[in-house]
Amino acid sequence: MQVTTNGITIEVEDTGRGKPLLLLMGLGMQLVSWPEELVNGLVARGYRVIRIDNRDSGLSQGFDHLGKANLLIATIRYLLGMRIVAPYSLADMARDALGVLDAIGIDGVDVCGASMGGMIAQHMATLQPGRVQRLTLMMTTSGSRSLPQPSSRVRNALLSRPSSRDPDAIVAYLERLFALIGSPQFQTDPELFRARLRAVVARAWRPSGVGRQLLAVAADGDRTPMLGKITSPTHIVHGAADPLVPVAAAHQLHRKIRGSTLEIIDGMGHDLPLPLLPRLTEAIARGA
Questions:
Q1: Which helix (H) or strand (E) holds 101?
Q2: According to DSSP H, which parts of 108-206 are helical?
Q3: Domain map of the chain by residue range?
């Protein structure tokens, strides 16, 4: 279903009847990027699982009228410590999520955010602290410049594009990207993974939206001062082998968020591989 919030339309999937749990996905990803096995596992544990397509991704409203992001200029400005201007902010995306909850009649909610979704969740927990009852931050970061950064190879892969708009070329590109940033010790069957990527690409493929979301991440800067304002009980989950957001980011979150708990998973990269879904389901349920 779609709801109108914060002046835009957001695609929402609402599953189960238990305690509300909002799942927020990362850069350019869609609500279907939360595997059904994980969603079903959470529903079986008594949760009402709400997933959304962030603005500019999936079936939610796009912002193509604002033009394509100039990522080269943004990268130069970031490296020089200069201000980056984005067409919208992560705080705007947090308000989208909060507005979805308003629209479907949910007050208190547990929130789990992965990667960029974890950054949005940090904003939610400070914008309306009493509303976010528990918080799970997965493979995410404060954005501090003092933290280790991904290698140039990983950055270049993230900024690259498929060879064409042909669905097979897009799927091949995504396979290469996840082979680079994914979990070295936990891999989904290649044919099953490829089939899931095909389904995701068939649902929506919006590279311009990815660029604008990336600008929003870069423009958000260092959220470290925000972390001390988070009062929600927080569980941090991170892969020890994450090449996109090195694990030092999780340790910093743990130090800065009072009372938080930390779960580091050996062999996990920057993905949600099928063999790890039972453990990740338990981690989210524990954090939520």
A1: helix 90-103
A2: 116-127, 152-159, 167-181, 190-203
A3: 2-287
Tens digit of pLDDT for each residue in 218-263? 999 999 999 999 999 999 999 999 999 999 999 999 999 999 999 9
Residue with tokens 């980011």: 249
pTM reported for the whole predicted model: 0.96
Give the residue carrying structure tokens 């950054």. 119
Question: CA 113 to CA 121: how far, in whole Å?
Answer: 6
CA distances from 79 to 82, 147, 218, 222, 251 (A): 8, 14, 11, 14, 24
CATH number for the domain whose boundaries are 2-287: 3.40.50.1820
Distances (CA, A) of 7 to 41, 87, 96, 235, 285: 33, 15, 9, 32, 32
Give whole-number Cα distances, 30 to 52, 59, 121, in Å.
8, 8, 16
